[in-house]
Task: structure prediction
Amino acid sequence: MNVQAGQRPDGESPGEGTRQRRAVVDYALQRRARLAEVYAGRASLHDVCDAHPYLLRAAAFHGQLSDVSCPVCRKEQLSEVHYVYGDALKAMSGQAKAPRELADMAQRLREFTVYVVEVCRSCRWNHLTMSFVMGQGSARPSRRRAATE
Ligand SMILES: [Zn+2]
Result:
């Protein structure tokens, strides 16, 4: 089997969406280590397939179906849920958002962090796969400061 972590699914425009992401952290190694524990019998399914009901609900309403099938039960494709955190979000912090909402928020907000959690709605396997920062940021920092009058 050929499992390549970090491979982008086709059909997603590599331009807009990804250009806005920064400080990307990939948790593929931790994920693989966790799965190795499961396959070796060192971690029980009870421990790893423990998705909270809130997470399952978020997957149903805001999740994006990936083309990766569940590594544990292989019964269905994983859903990706995007959680947003940050001071700029105020009460919205900690909520799950659909990908198209993220792009919209990135236009309006200065900075927020997105955590991507994959979840299987069949066996409840779940794992953090990626985090990144979006938003307009405080780009052009040093040049501005010199221009104060
Ligand atoms: Zn599963």
